[in-house]
Design the sequence.
């Protein structure tokens, strides 16, 4: 019986299971079907809602005897559908609110007046950046009755006790308190005909330390600031298009804002339009305050030089700062000019006590990288800063950027980074020219089965172990001891594929003139590069002290093996005020050198990039701008670069500190020579 009973159960269970499975599948199918219907209904409702808005935007003209009635005729029928449609159209609202919130974050009992606040959607958005408790009172002021009714309903549903909806003219409203910490015009100033009166009214109650923020559509004037300038066709098209809806997006409003207030920050950009492919409407964000001592910042438009990649070449500086500091005697009286590169060494100069550092690069992407580091030092805590620039990744980069970093970046840097935040998802140090090259090399090594060897070299516990692993790698043993013909063919293939001029420029930042200097020394480029890596592997322990190549091999730094600015005590020093001594410029090195006197100048390998005629010009300007006793340093891919004699004739005592043919140079070991020039007193031979 036992056997028979057990034998019968599987049949019964199978039948029950089949019934249950069938029921479950039917239930799942029904659920999916209902979900599909629900989504279909949602899409249909969304399309109907959008059509309501579009119909009034495109086919309905505002009518009425006064401005209030015209607004009501235009916005009244679309009031309930207003918010969802505008969320994909009014791209300047969030940057404006984030920029204002970032500057008011430490204050309490704020009074905010949102003029032309419509449905109160800005209030909802602002609470993403500042908690409600920061505000003593918020006034949503609008002249359109239907929009105010939607705002009142929103206030009631949200339970906002300190938010007041006021149906009033922006030109006539004054908050009961008589003053406001923040006044905003969110896509409303262009719709207020007497905009002078609206701005005057807002300025009349803006507190002395208050902010006025504007986000709106715009066109430039015929001659405008560089970051605003538009060609005539865009000016004509967009102004005429918006004019059909009684929206004036001309430059007069911003000009009047800058007459009454001092500009603190602005962004000029463009955003997509729902259901309108290809066209992108221009918008701006402008933050101002009452006039104070100082100057209003004007940012020039800077394009990347010809033949440069659309991003940075270097994610870190590729000059070892240790030997630099040994010969430069940095002190608080120094004004130092340096090339930016990755920006690490500019920050290191501040930590060594430089009174002022000017970091210049002709590539705006390099400036954007250093500017982001500066902004992060000023506004982030160490843990977030380390994740961004130590690990090269941050899981909350979008939020941190929008709330804390973007509001303080220049327009050029903001434009660069808002499209490349994914760098911090994939790994910052595998981006850019050299970063991409490192990533490709990693992939190739993994493909040929050397990935584990790379990890072992990078994490070798001692220099001796690192040497042992390096010397026993299959590739190195083949190159040193393999058949001569096969080695020759292999080296030629590697040189053709990996060390050609295109790869060296876009991946390693080695320009054609520097490539030629290497060849003039009679050294094949593959031998030159092998010397670099072999010298590092044999003489410098990557895991404990050589953060340059450890970063290349792993894509991140370690807290005990990283550039100085990434260490927490140094971060605190920079944050406490040292960072304010740094100026980041996007310009040519020569133009910046001409602009002021410098006691110390770091040329890096810049002179390798130039022609003999330019060497003469640089030497003359160095003689003019570097006072007696001042120091200039540079590195070169050549053992004896000819321009060293040119600098000497200009009135400098030039000394070669080290050369690659005399042995290992420094942790980077990438150059053939390192020079120091001291400015002598008296005139130069070029005078």
Sequence:
């Amino acid at each position: 019986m036992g056997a028979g009973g057990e034998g019968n159960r599987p049949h019964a269970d199978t039948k029950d299971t089949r019934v249950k499975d069938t029921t479950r599948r039917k239930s799942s199918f029904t659920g999916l079907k209902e979900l599909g219907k629900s989504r279909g209904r949602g899409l249909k409702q969304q399309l109907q809602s959008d059509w309501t808005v579009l119909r009034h935007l495109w086919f309905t003209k505002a009518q009425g005897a006064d401005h209030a009635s015209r607004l009501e005729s235009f916005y009244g029928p679309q009031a309930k559908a207003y918010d969802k449609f505008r969320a994909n159209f009014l791209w300047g609202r969030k940057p404006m609110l984030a920029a204002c919130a970032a500057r008011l974050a430490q204050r309490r009992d704020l009074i905010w007046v949102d003029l032309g606040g419509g449905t109160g959607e800005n209030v909802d958005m602002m609470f993403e950046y500042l908690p409600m408790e920061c505000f003593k009172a918020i006034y949503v002021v609008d002249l359109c009755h239907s929009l105010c009714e939607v705002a009142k309903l929103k206030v009631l549903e949200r339970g906002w006790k300190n938010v007041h909806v006021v149906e009033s003219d922006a030109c006539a409203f004054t908050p009961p308190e008589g003053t406001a910490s923040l006044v905003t015009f969110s896509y409303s100033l262009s719709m207020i005909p007497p905009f002078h009166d609206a701005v005057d009214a807002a300025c009349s109650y803006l507190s002395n330390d208050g902010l006025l923020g504007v986000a709106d559509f715009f066109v430039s004037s015929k001659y405008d600031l560089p970051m605003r300038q538009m060609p005539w066709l865009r000016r004509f098209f967009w102004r005429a298009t918006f004019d059909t809806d009684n929206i004036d997006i001309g430059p007069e409003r911003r000009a009047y804002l800058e007459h009454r207030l001092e500009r603190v920050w602005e962004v000029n950009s463009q955003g997509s339009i729902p259901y309108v492919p290809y066209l992108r409407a221009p918008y701006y964000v402008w933050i101002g305050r009452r006039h104070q001592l100082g100057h209003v910042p004007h940012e020039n438009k800077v394009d990347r030089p010809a033949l440069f990649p659309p991003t940075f070449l270097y994610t870190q500086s590729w000059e070892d700062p240790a030997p630099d500091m040994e010969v430069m005697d940095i002190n608080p009286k120094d004004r130092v000019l340096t090339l930016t590169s990755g920006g690490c060494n500019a920050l290191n100069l501040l930590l060594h006590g430089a009174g002022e550092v000017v970091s210049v690069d002709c590539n705006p992407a390099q400036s954007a990288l250093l500017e982001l580091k500066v902004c992060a030092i000023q506004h982030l805590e160490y843990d977030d800063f380390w994740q961004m620039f130590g690990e090269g990744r941050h899981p909350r980069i979008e939020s941190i950027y929008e709330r804390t970093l973007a509001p303080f970046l220049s327009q050029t840097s903001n434009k660069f980074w808002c499209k490349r935040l994914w760098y911090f998802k994939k790994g910052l140090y595998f981006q850019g020219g050299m970063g991409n090259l490192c990533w490709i090399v990693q992939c190739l090594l993994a493909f040929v089965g050397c990935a584990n060897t790379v990890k072992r070299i990078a994490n070798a516990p001692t220099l001796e172990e690192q040497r042992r692993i390096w010397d026993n790698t299959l590739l190195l043993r083949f190159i040193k001891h393999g058949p001569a013909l096969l080695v020759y063919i292999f080296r030629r293939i590697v040189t053709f594929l990996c060390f050609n001029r295109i790869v060296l420029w876009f991946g390693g930042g080695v320009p054609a003139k520097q490539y030629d200097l290497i060849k003039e020394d009679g050294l094949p480029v593959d031998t030159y590069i092998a010397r670099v890596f072999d010298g590092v592997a044999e003489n410098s322990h990557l895991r404990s002290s050589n953060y340059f190549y450890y970063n290349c091999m792993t894509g991140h730094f370690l807290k005990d093996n990283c550039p100085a600015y990434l260490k927490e005590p140094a971060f605190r020093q920079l944050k406490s005020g040292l960072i304010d001594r740094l100026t980041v410029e996007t310009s040519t090195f020569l133009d910046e050198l001409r602009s002021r006197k410098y006691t110390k100048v770091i040329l890096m390998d810049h002179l390798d990039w130039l022609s003999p005629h330019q060497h003469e010009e640089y030497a003359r300007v160095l003689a003019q701008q570097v006072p007696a006793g001042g120091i200039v340093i540079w590195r070169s891919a050549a053992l004896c670069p000819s321009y060293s004699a040119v600098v000497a004739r200009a009135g400098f005592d030039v000394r070669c500190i080290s050369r690659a043919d005399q042995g290992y140079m420094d942790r980077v070991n990438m150059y053939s020579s390192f020079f120091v020039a001291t400015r002598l007193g008296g005139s130069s031979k070029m005078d």
Summary: The chain has a mean pLDDT of 88. The CA atoms of residues 197 and 266 lie 22 Å apart. The first strand starts at residue 110 and ends at 115.
